[in-house]
Amino acid sequence: MSFLKVTRNWYSRFERPISSASLVFGFIFDALTLRRVDTLWENLWIVAHLLIVGLFIILVQIRERQSGDEKNPSKIHFYFVNVLQFFFGGLLSTYLVFYFRSADVFVAWPFILLLILAFIANESLKRHYVRFSFQISLFFLSIYLFLIFLVPVVLHKIGDWVFLLSGFLSLIFILFFVTFLYNVTKNRFKSNLKKIVFLISGIFITINFLYFTNIIPPIPLSLKEAGVYHSVMRNGSGDYVVATENAGWLSYFKMYQDFNKVSGSPVYVYSAIFSPKNLNLTIIHQWQYFDSIKNKWITDSEINLPVVGGRDGGFRTYSMRSNLPAGKWRVNVKTLYGQNIGTIHFKIISTDTMPVVVSEVKK
Q1: How far is CA 38 from CA 35, 156, 220, in A?
Q2: Nearest Cα to 327, choosing from 280, 293, 361, 302?
Q3: What Å distances lie between residue 205 and 108, 111, 221, 276, 350, CA to CA?
Q4: Does residue 36 sit in helix, strand or coil?
Q5: Residue 319's closest CA among 292, 348, 361, 282?
Q6: Whether the Cβ atoms of residue 214 and residue 303 lie closer than 8 Å to each other
Q7: Which of 154, 206, 257, 330 is a Cys-bridge partner for 346, taking CB atoms 3.0 to 4.6 Å apart?
Q8: pLDDT, position 73
Q9: In the structure, what pLDDT confidence band is assigned to residue 31 with cuts at 50, 70 and 90?
Q10: Confidence label for 125 from pLDDT (cuts 50, 70 and 90)
């Protein structure tokens, strides 16, 4: 028995635990190693994965054309399919890391959930890899998700027209790819054409719907750090010194941080926004309070703040409000286009004495 056959039999026997372990460790590896969406290494990493995926889709289709049977998984080349699945998993893991870092989970959870489901499905739906339409639709989704954050990084701009350009370029790329495949597998392509058009159109419409309803996170922007404080000052070293209440470790489990405020004292909200190099923009601190009578959030004020791109820890800035009444408050950190980068929740509690505060340095 050949070494390759022994390897294949061993992998087939333990495929499920190997696949599950690969999913977990692959995600952990990406989370620890992938830092910024605007660095050459991260983007070359994704481009390499896309090139390998495209190559092995072609190889799988050539192998299938020779076998003449798409629906019988035993006819597909064992190693081609596993390589294809592995690199699709690497792409989805990378996107999950990048988009999750940029997301306000309370707003973007439907999109993040879709990414997680796609990530898990990649490990569970191996039999679908023999299907031409499945390969093309997943490849298109991978290209689209990549260009959504690459185009703003290259153009140093964000906005609706930049997003639409990302979608247009994705369609151009997949059109060239399927045109090439058409010349390789004409009969198989014709039989799958309607399904391919339907799936690509569905993905395109869904992604655009999620964007224009502000569910897709505003990648490549991300909220590196944020909080509510009693004072924010910049020291001689250029760092920010904040005064915060020592609420203890239990505060991490509270939806609304308690903020004890003496009448007339100010409230500061600090935020550090990561933006790629040369992508300078204006963000908004939208101060809102919860009206318990109307049972909805009411906007109290909106403060525009500049952000300069390129700093690893994010561009640091803050806004301040005075004479705020007691109750539930939140500050939405948003783009000018209405996309939510993050939200700071807190509850103002009126008190007669100034609470004990400690100083922290934000570098």
Answers
A1: 9, 10, 8
A2: 293
A3: 17, 14, 23, 27, 48
A4: coil
A5: 282
A6: no
A7: 257
A8: 47
A9: low
A10: low
Dihedral sign (CA 174, 35, 104, 25): positive
For the segment 264-303, what is each residue's pLDDT rounded down to a tens digit? 899 999 999 999 999 999 999 999 999 999 999 999 999 9
Specify the higher pLDDT residue, 220 or 108: 220
Q: Which pair of structure tokens corresponds to residue 62?
A: 């050539």
Maximum CA extent, the chain: 83
φ, ψ dihedrals at 348, nearest 5°: -80, 125
| Rounded average pLDDT over 137-144 | 93
User: CA–CA separation, 11 vs 1, rounded Å?
Assistant: 15
Specify whether the CB–CB gap between 308 and 290 falls below 8 A. Answer: no
Give the DSSP H/E element, type plus range, for residue 32. helix 15-33
- Helices and strands (DSSP H and E) totals, the chain: 8, 11
pLDDT digits (tens, 9 = 90+) for 152-165: 999 999 999 999 99
80 closest CA partner among 101, 63, 97, 99: 63
Q: Could you confirm whether domain 222-362 is CATH 1.10.443.10?
A: no
Q: How confident is the model at residue 316 (pLDDT cuts 50, 70, 90)?
A: very high
Rounded to the nearest 10 degrees, the angle between the axes of helix 40-67 and helix 186-212 is 150
Domain locations in the chain? Answer: 3-212, 222-362
Beta-bridge partner residues of 358: 244
Q: Which of 195, 193, 189, 143 is nearest to 169 (CA)?
A: 143
How far, in Å, are 12, 96, 231, 299 from residue 342 at the CA level?
A: 44, 17, 21, 16
Model confidence band, residue 243 (pLDDT cutoffs 50, 70, 90): very high
Residues whose CB falls within 8 Å of the CB of residue 187, separated by 6 or more in sequence, listed in order: none
